[in-house]
Design brief:
Blueprint: H1 2-21, H2 36-54
């Protein structure tokens, strides 16, 4: 469920930290968690959704 999904993200972050520390390439879960760039893109998406709603559901380029 919900908690397990976040546990997998946290595990991936730890694996990425260990891979970077050991100078190994990231693989598996270490390569699958969302990045800061993914989060920023999500924020931009929500901003576009709000702008579309404010304009009566008009199409907003993303």
């Amino acid at each position: 469920g919900f908690y397990e999904a976040f546990a997998n993200i946290y595990r991936g972050v730890i694996e990425a930290i260990r891979a970077d520390r050991d100078r190994r390439p990231r693989s598996g879960l270490a390569a699958e968690f969302p990045s800061v760039h993914d989060g920023a893109r999500g924020v931009r998406f929500i901003e576009r959704v709000l702008a579309s709603s404010a304009q009566g559901g008009a199409w907003i380029e993303f």
